[in-house]
Amino acid sequence: MKLWSHPRFPGLPASLLAAAVLAVFLPASRAAEAELAVDKVKFAGLSPEAAAREATAPAGFSVKLFAGEPDVKQPIAFAIDDRGRLWVAEGYTYPRKAPEGQGKDRILIFEDTDGDHKFDKRTVFIEGLNLVSGLALGFGGVWVGAAPQMLFIPDRNHDDKPDGPPEVVLDGWAYQDTHETLNTFTWGPDGWLYGCHGVFTHSKVGKPGAPDSERTRLNAGVFRYHPVKKTFELFAEGSSNPWGVDFDDYGQCHIEACVIPHFFHMIQGGRFTRQAGEHFNPYTYADIETIADHLHYAGNKGPHAANGRSDSAGGGHAHAGLLVYQGDSWPAEYRGRVIMNNIHGARLNMDSLERRGSGYVAHHQPDFVNFNDTWSQILNLLSDQDGAVYAIDWYDANQCHHGREDGHDRSNGRIFKIVYGNPKVTPIDLEKKSEAELVQLQLHPNEFYVRHARRLLQERGPSATAAARILRLLNPGGSLPEAPVEAGLLAPGSETRQLRLLWALHAVGGLTEGIALNLLQSPHPYVRGWVVQLMLEDRQVSDTFLGAMAKLAATDSSPVVRLYVASGLLRVDPKRRMETVAALLGHGEDASDHNLPLMYWYAAEPVVGLGTEEGLSLLKQSKIPRVREFIPRRMVSTAKTKGVAATP
User: Fold this and answer.
1) Could you tell me if 392 and 378 are in contact, meaning their C-beta atoms sit under 8 angstroms apart?
2) How many Cα neighbours within 13 Å face the side chain of 181?
């Protein structure tokens, strides 16, 4: 791990910068502590069976050993398929990429056929991969991150054997720092494949053979790729070395981070606190900060000084894996809680989300599971068809990244399964479901079914019949008859269920502009906001819909909707933004919002860059002090660039 630095304060000693940050994020009582007690951890180097037995969890929960060495070693990424089976990538090549053709990584399939929460069937899907770091399933194959490439390995007949050699989908993924490469793939509610990327690796991603002009630069942030449109883009920029991304019930993207504060609500087009380096846009001026009101490390001497001394705060600064729990078998209070692993703390931290303004505040909750073992290194978490949670454990005495190949124990690895009570394992094969059944699953209380069914609908392609079924449930404007809802499913009227239906409608190609304009009248702000995001997906917008966005910007009472409008404007030609930007800047009540002042600035900045007239016009209309501060600064930069004498 690297010390936290900041581009705005390049000459500030790291210790002073850390102290300043801690003064903001830590309670005064903790910041005042002169010394911290050394953490005491019971175990180190347990057997797989003992590791599960010695883990402590809340009452009613148990940690089961699903698989352990020698059956799995070095698990670095995983996914759950439509049959509830686990696909696990073993990362033997890390931390150094092997010479071409000498990769050692492989992908295994684990299956529990007798329902005892332990695997009893293991299949080797592919071997010989190189520096694997990300894994996802869908669209007839397996998506693999293996810098410098994103690969697609076809298995369209589902026989668990590759149909042919891996296909290079994207290349240009860098690996200067091999623990900050593309990772933790997950399907977003909009049908894109999302993943994370670290700050000290500098990629230029594009289709094979693409020139630099057609490539996307990225380091820290969240990216996405559309499996049908073959489009790649940087979704949101910033943070440090995120290795975990998930979406909540409202489709909001959340990541964990290391060294810097640990939790970010990632907004499309947003620019967030960076561990190091500059944002790609030089006129960013300020970035959006963490939503966490706490840290998971203690003391006032910086995150590294607190290593091994942060038990009271959550275990330390290094995190990996993130899950927003949306299953249906745990107690209700866990729904929406965010679970992430704390590497130095050998435990699963838990935060709760409180909606505030256009976003959230993340509050500290008691640690969820403590593995009580210094070798524990959970890298990611996923929930299954029964609401249980799987966790892959890299398991190693060495907790920090370095480049020595002999610095890791290649013989270890575990997969744990965290359950509440004594649930049964439900055999499933969602790929065999009919279109009507997949539509009905959008109302299932367990998000696993919702996500898999939506992706399967998308895989099957545009469908007028599926769109009609979804519209009967979505029922925009009350103009359609209600469709019957099967027993055991949830009524479609709530905001989160309306969102699921909206995303499914988009997945089957049924979201027309007419329907979108109708849905802008929804009583649910996240529905109105998501309509904007989906309609701007291809960076194309009609004058009619842009006019509707301007009306939302001026009159919508929800800061959530205004956030989506600002985000959407980043995908609109700056020459067409003026009316909508000006309307947003007229909301003086947004001046203290966590996200809106800076998102408004990111949308307004290119407009100011068009010329003095545009800049002065927005300056006169803006009721957002931070934007009023930035507009003259940008105007001066424009004048200097054009060789014109700057005016105060």
Assistant:
1) yes
2) 30
Instruction: Give the neighbor-by-neighbor strand order of the sheet with 245-247.
Output: 245-247, 253-256, 263-266
Cα–Cα distance, 107 to 74 (Å, whole number): 11
Find, among 269, 252, 288, the residue nearest to 577 by Cα.
269
Tokens of 510: 């049924």
- DSSP 8-state class, residue 212: G
Q: Is the distance from CB of 223 to CB of 197 less than 8 angstroms?
A: yes
Instruction: Give the separation between CA 1 and CA 5, rounded to whole angstroms.
Output: 12
β-bridge pairing 378-383 and 132-137: unpaired
Residues 107 and 78: their CA atoms lie apart, in Å, by: 9
Average confidence (pLDDT) per 10 residues, the chain, 648 residues? 35 37 42 69 97 98 98 98 98 95 98 98 98 98 98 98 98 95 98 98 98 97 98 98 98 97 98 97 98 95 91 96 98 98 97 98 98 98 98 92 80 98 96 98 97 98 96 74 60 89 98 95 96 98 98 98 98 98 98 98 98 97 98 87 42
Distance of CA 355 to the CA centre of its chain: 18
For residue 476, what pLDDT is reported?
65
Burial 495-516 (b: 16+ CB within 10 A, else e): ebbbbbbbbbbbbbbbbeeebb
**pTM, 2 dp:** 0.92
* CA–CA gap between residue 426 and residue 411 (Å, rounded): 32
What DSSP string describes 376-418? --EEEEEE-TTS-EEEEE---S--S--S-GGGS-TT--EEEEE
Listed residue (103, 166, 82, 29) closest to 426, CA to CA: 82
- For residue 401, the tally of other CB atoms under 10 A from its CB is 18
For 170, the token pair is 């994207």
